[in-house]
Amino acid sequence: MTARSQALTMLRALARKDAGGRILHHFATDPGRIQRMGVEAAGLYLDLSKQSWSAEGFEAALDLARTCDVEGRRDALFAGDAVNNTEGRAVLHPALRAADGAGFHALGEPVSAEVDAVRAAMADFATDIGSGAETGGAKQPFTAIVHIGIGGSDLGPRLLWDALRPLEPVIDLRFVANIDPRDMGEALAGLDPETTLVVVVSKTFTTHETLANADLAKAWLAESLSPRRMVKHLVGVTAAPDKAEAWGCGRTFGFRDWVGGRYSLWSAVSLSVAVALGWDMFERVLAGARAMDAHFVEASLEVNAPVLLAMAQVFNVEGLGRPARTVAPYAHGLRRLPAFLQQLEMESNGKRVKRDGSPVDTETGPVVFGEPGTNGQHAFFQQIHQGPQVVPAEFVVVGHTSGAAMDAREGDAPLWSNALAQAQALMLGQTEAQARAELVASGLSAEEADRLAPHKIFPGDRPSTTILMDALTPEAVGALLALYEHKTFVEGVIWDINSFDQWGVELGKMLAKAILRDVAAGEPSAGLDPSTSELMKRLMV
Ligand code: F6P
């Protein structure tokens, strides 16, 4: 038995034991629990004390992290080794948010000078658009940006914009991802081509949806602008600049293949956001992420926020067979966080083979879903409280949301008090006796109270993590997203999978092309499965 399988066996055994106790009991028997399981990192505070683990379970999780050499693998990532082993690539998103002159290397090649140069070009572009020095083809200042991209070329920048945008932005930034033309139609509605900048974001510059949308946007510009003027309105952000230029971009901002799509928001992928927010704000996002990088590299495992967050997930998935997690950000500005995490975590860790290609010997990445609070409470939280499956929850709680314009009423307490109450309710539950007493106190007869009490039992002991942010500042948002990136990486190390490829998205893309060929030919090809064939026939009429 390897040291890793021994550590896994220990974790599973202790998790089973811990599941037999109650979380509240752990507080009673372990006075140091809050201190041990509450960590500060880059301005965030994580409370992992409402997880199911006892002090021993927690130690077993840390021991597993040590045994899997999380620190060594982390150092290899920061050193620019070929961590993405199926594609032979370094994984260096931290280089994108490092201070100028940081000295990162990818597979031995220095990369920081190029990162700094792109960043300086982005800063100039953002400043020049803000000042009006950079204009459209008709010398009019830009008042709107249409950002076209999908997956990692969409979710991170969109999240940043939602989280940090002013209530009345100077630049009207709109995002288009879906190949449904309605998405583009909505984005272009009311815009003036003469004052609109189109930013096409695609690492590969081959993504079907993005290129189809880019063509639509180009055609829309061409209705009003001559080809000579139009180039000033078309900017590409890509790791394939020759493709972007061949397509018609007047200017491109680059990044390298060592930036994974879902880890790319720190690069020129966020150009449109940097322009619309202003360069200083974007730099502050990078600074927040940089602070989380420093914490991840320097903090020892037992107080390392990304490591502990990852190990809580591993404890739930691997130890307790809980294959899902819900994330509820209690801030309107973070409403896209669940969507961002779905790509980050499920595209990174939804894998069935280990790094060496052999089948995994553990569970891997769980299903992640969520909604902002308090909206989710009025939707799926019923199931989280009383459904038969235990779904661990994660509450991202913001002391001061950016809704400062609404600072009348009771401030932000109505929002965050709900998050705290949900986490408390999940842990405490409600017994049948408590339910009955409450019903009787509300005036029901003993008979009625007996009849209804079973419906009002909450089993409790449902685990949650709470992540606190003082305010929705650029630094805090940067730190939060970097926290999740590193957490995802640590899980991949424990499960021994490559978190940085995504072969699972390719088969569907290939089959969609074949279906489109059939559509062009006017009929399903021979040998197509009967279900797909029938559906196609119905859709082709
Ligand atoms: O299909 C999945 C994916 O490859 C993601 O990994 C990526 O973020 C997205 O498509 C967009 O890719 P690109 O930036 O190359 O257009």
Residue fraction in strands: 5-15%
Number of E strands:
13
Q: Treating each run of at least 4 consecutive H or I residues as one helix, how many helices? A: 23
Strand order of the largest sheet: 1-2-13-12-10-11
Rg from Cα:
25 Å
Largest sheet: 6 strands, mixed
Uncertain ranges: none
Structural category: alpha/beta
Quote the average pLDDT: 96
Tell the overall outline: globular
Instruction: Identify the bound ligands.
Output: 6-O-phosphono-beta-D-fructofuranose
Distance between the amino and carboxyl termini:
60 Å
Portion of residues within helices: 40-55%
Report on this structure.
This protein is α/β, with parallel strands linked by helices. The chain contains 23 helices and 13 strands. The protein has a 6-stranded mixed beta sheet with strand order 1-2-13-12-10-11, with helices on both faces. A hairpin with a 2-residue loop joins strand 1 (38-41) and strand 2 (44-47). The longest helix has 22 residues, at 474-495. The structure holds 6-O-phosphono-beta-D-fructofuranose. The site of 6-O-phosphono-beta-D-fructofuranose (F6P) has 14 residues, from loops.
Keyphrases for this structure?
541 residues; alpha/beta; five-stranded parallel beta sheet; 23 helices
Short overview:
The protein has helices at residues 3-20, 23-29, 33-37, 55-67, 70-78, 93-96, 112-131, 155-164, 181-188, 208-222, 227-230, 241-247, 271-277, 279-298, 305-319, 337-349, 381-386, 413-428, 432-441, 446-452, 474-495, 506-521, 530-540, and strands spanning 38-41, 44-47, 105-106, 109-110, 144-148, 172-176, 196-201, 234-238, 251-254, 324-330, 367-370, 393-400, 464-471.
